[in-house]
Amino acid sequence: MKKNLTLFCALCIIQCIFAKSIVVTQKTSESYIGNMTQACEWKLSHKNIEVVNHLKYFEVKKSGEVVAFFDPVNIDRNSLYIWVELSPNGKMLLFTTSDQGVFICNLKGDILYKFGRGVTATNWWNNRYIVGMIEKDNGVDFLKSDLVMIDIKTGEKIQIQTEEEIALYPCANKPYLEYFTPDNTKYTIKLKIR
Fold first, then answer.
1. How many structural domains are present in the chain?
2. Which among 144, 70, 65, 145 is positioned nearest to 107, based on CA atoms?
3. pLDDT tens-place string over residues 137-192
């Protein structure tokens, strides 16, 4: 029993030493007029590659010519592909479905990572991390919403500390992250991963 407790404590210490944290190093705010859910510009092209979201399937074009089309998770007839974005290196596609959650696939449609439901409004921070929000609502209004960064390789979710109780619709533009509050205030913060 004592050996197990010692081993458990050692593992906890190692995890704390290597645990990642995110530090906000700068913050500004401004009033925002517009639809905060559409404020983020999801990138769907990289060099000579373009991804077209047809809501029920994707089409990949290379130098203007269609090279692939796919429905990576076989969404049901009531679902759509939303919050779709090509990775900064142009090799992976991040997307959400209303019935199955968040996924990352390659440009052939093979699923590389599955995160399930719970995180929404996702977009790329860099080729290893995505950002999104985890919200609670009553069906009409947001009650709480936290911003998170997810390590796609480990699935680890790191909370981004904001002073706002309800932080919505993050837009990554490394090293900056924009987000909104229900009163249509746009915040811009500068982040550093440690």
1. 1
2. 70
3. 898 999 999 999 999 999 999 999 888 889 999 999 999 999 999 999 999 999 98
Q: What is the pTM of this model?
A: 0.84
Q: Which residues of 59-87 are buried (b: 16+ CB within 10 A; e: fewer)?
A: ebbeeeeeeeebebbebeeebebebbbbb
Q: Whose structure tokens read 């979201």?
A: 53
Domain residue limits at 169: 22-193
Domain holding 167: CATH number? 2.130.10.10
Domain membership of residue 34 (yes or no) is yes
Q: Is residue 4 part of a domain?
A: no
CB 148 within 8 A of CB 119: yes
Tell me, yes or no, whether 54 lies in a domain: yes
Structure tokens at 137: 């609502």
Q: For residue 48, give the amino acid letter.
A: N
C-beta separation of 103 from 73 below 8 A: yes
pLDDT at 26 over 90: no
Amino acid at 170: P
**Which of helix, strand or coil describes residue 15?**
helix
Q: Residue 96 belongs to what H/E stretch?
A: strand 92-97
5 domain-assigned: no
Report which residue type is found at 10.
Answer: A
Question: What's 36's DSSP letter?
Answer: G
